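Is this the right way to post structure tokens for a design question? Let me know if I should format differently. Anyway, here goes:
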């Protein structure tokens, strides 16, 4: 596990700037372990280690709202045989220093559906919802195959709701 020391930041640093610093430091750690940074910008992973794609997600525990985008559901479905792992990092900022409080590493298919939602972005974006502590992330009890069957069911439900929503919008426009 990444052994982070406190990271100094500007008092004016925003959440995205802090996340970028943590992600870069953590990616460097994985590279030191034999990992590889991606060749392009539009990849699933922040870093890969062997055949595992690692996506780093950070969260300031003192912010009230956190619903991180994980991955496009269409992209996830196409890559269901790829090992996609999330490295979640909880942190807080104290006196212009970032203090990492905890870290959790979990494959996508081990995250329980009680904290996952598909939201309206592109063909659907899988988001993590209502998790206050990444160390207490609810784990899915079934198999990887069952998790992906559930993904497809969730996609069908999401698309049906979208169709209903857009049909209603079209009815408002008809002349």
């Amino acid at each position: 596990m990444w052994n982070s020391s406190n990271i100094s930041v500007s008092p004016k640093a925003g959440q995205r700037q802090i996340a970028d610093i943590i992600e870069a430091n953590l990616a460097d750690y994985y590279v030191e372990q034999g990992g590889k940074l991606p060749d392009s910008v539009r990849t699933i992973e922040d870093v890969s280690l062997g055949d595992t794609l690692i996506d780093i997600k950070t969260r300031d525990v003192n912010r009230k709202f956190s619903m991180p985008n994980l991955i496009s559901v269409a992209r996830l479905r196409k890559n269901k045989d790829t090992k996609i792992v999330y490295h979640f990092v909880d942190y807080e900022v104290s006196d212009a220093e970032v203090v990492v409080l905890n870290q959790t590493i979990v494959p996508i298919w081990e995250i329980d559906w009680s904290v996952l939602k598909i939201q309206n972005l592109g063909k659907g974006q899988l988001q993590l919802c209502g998790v206050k502590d990444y160390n207490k992330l609810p784990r899915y009890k079934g198999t990887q195959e069952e998790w992906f069957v559930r993904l497809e069911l969730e996609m069908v439900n999401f698309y049906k709701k979208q169709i209903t929503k857009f049909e209603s919008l079209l009815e408002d426009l008809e002349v």
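Format looks fine. Someone answered above. Worth noting: Residues 7-173 form a domain with the ECO RV Endonuclease; Chain A fold (CATH 3.40.600.10). The CA atoms of residues 11 and 97 lie 9 Å apart.
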